[in-house]
Write a structure and sequence with these properties.
single chain, 379 residues, alpha/beta, Rossmann fold, 2 domains, seven-stranded parallel beta sheet, six-stranded parallel beta sheet, 16 helices
Length: 379
């Protein structure tokens, strides 16, 4: 029996890369001899993270459309032509049974060329508002795996499959309020815990709001786990705070630019403050975590606001616009953490949006397409 050969393309951010690696890991778990090749964008995070995860990757000189300076898109167009030529050679040399796209600069030319060469393509769209590249590719895709309802406004309805977004494996088995998690952050059981995450690069508005409101949070008896992100840490931190320092159970504060043990952080968090990226929202739904979402205003088509509204319109999360966060965020967090009934209600409602075993369901769809490609009459 011929072993499966799969291209997975995309990346650029953790929101694209984590699902891609989850899909690859599920394929390898199910088919140990599967040959998987990633195609990413040069100088983006996938070129470093994918090899560390044990997979091969080829790079394309792909860049995004420049909305602020349209004249620069002449160079973008020239790069796109080069990416298409390179993708064509990669596909002809590798001879994949399928190309899976997770979003990101490289996925457009890779999946377009795969489709042109009669290779079935599968799209995994993480957001509730489809990006421009995926909307174009959707017309060529054999299957589109989505995480939100109503995606037929972007894609052909007969090709859509509701699978949800894959999340990091360790989070699916996240422990519940165990002693080890509290000890890891130097916090006390029995006191409310606020988890603040702005993504790996941080979120300036959230950081400012929390920084200015630390005293109010501590006066209210609230413990804080604060991931500041790398790009904002030095700018936003208080001069008396040192990265990675455990401030002790009396202070009730842990601050760092990155949280290595997110499973521990989620397990003891009573409330989460976060941006509204699709991957984070999928984690919050799966783990039933009450959340205040502050969508980033600096993303294409304002898709984070659309993501957040998909929950807030059903009373499954609190949405605070970025331009109101510094005024409202800390006050709202304190109000919620003092209202156990409201937290419980938010937990129940956000859990209704959880999609479990997403990577397995996406791989199921990919296998069906590969079997049809290799043997239309059945394997």
């Amino acid at each position: 029996m011929r072993k499966y050969r799969i291209i997975i393309s995309g990346g650029g951010t953790g929101g694209h890369l984590f699902p891609a690696l989850s899909i690859a890991n599920e394929l390898k778990h199910r088919f140990s001899d599967a040959d998987i090749l990633f195609v990413g964008a040069e100088n983006r995070m996938e070129m470093e993270r994918v090899p560390v995860a044990g997979y091969r990757i080829a790079g394309l000189p792909a860049v995004g459309y420049n909305r602020k300076n349209p004249l620069k898109n002449i160079g973008v167009a020239l790069r796109l032509l080069k990416c298409l030529r390179m993708a064509k050679k990669i596909i002809r040399d590798f001879k994949p049974d399928i190309a899976i796209g997770v979003g990101g600069y490289a996925s457009g030319p890779t999946l377009w060329m795969a489709s042109s060469l009669s290779i079935p393509i599968l799209i995994q769209e993480q957001n509730s508002y489809a990006g421009m590249t995926n909307k174009i590719l959707g017309k060529r895709a054999s299957k589109i795996c989505v995480a939100y309802r109503g995606m037929d406004r972007f894609f052909p309805a007969d090709r859509i499959v509701m699978t949800g977004n894959p999340v990091r494996k360790e989070l699916e088995t996240s422990c519940e309020n165990d002693e080890e998690s509290f000890n890891y952050f130097g916090l006390k059981p029995g006191r409310p815990v606020l988890l603040v995450v702005g993504g790996s690069l941080g979120a300036r508005t959230i950081n400012r709001a929390i920084g200015n409101g630390l005293t109010a949070l501590q006066d209210a008896g609230i413990q804080v786990i604060w991931q500041t992100g790398k790009s904002n840490y030095e700018l936003q931190r208080h001069p008396e705070l040192d990265s990675g320092t455990n401030y002790g159970t009396d202070n009730g504060l842990w601050v760092n630019d990155f949280i290595t043990r997110m499973d521990y952080a989620y397990s003891i968090a009573d409330l989460v403050v976060s941006r509204a990226g699709a991957g984070t929202i999928s984690e919050l739904c799966l783990l039933k975590k009450p959340a205040i979402l502050v969508p980033s205003p600096n993303v294409a088509e304002d898709h984070q606001t659309v993501n957040a509204r998909a929950l807030s319109d059903h009373h499954a999360a609190i949405l605070i616009p970025d331009n109101m966060a510094e005024e409202q965020l800390v006050r709202k967090a304190i109000e919620l953490l003092n209202d156990r009934e409201r937290l419980h209600d938010l937990s129940l409602k956000i859990a209704e949006f959880a999609q479990r075993d997403s990577a397995k369901r996406i791989v199921d769809e990919a296998v069906r397409l590969m079997d049809i490609q290799n043997n239309p009459k059945g394997r």
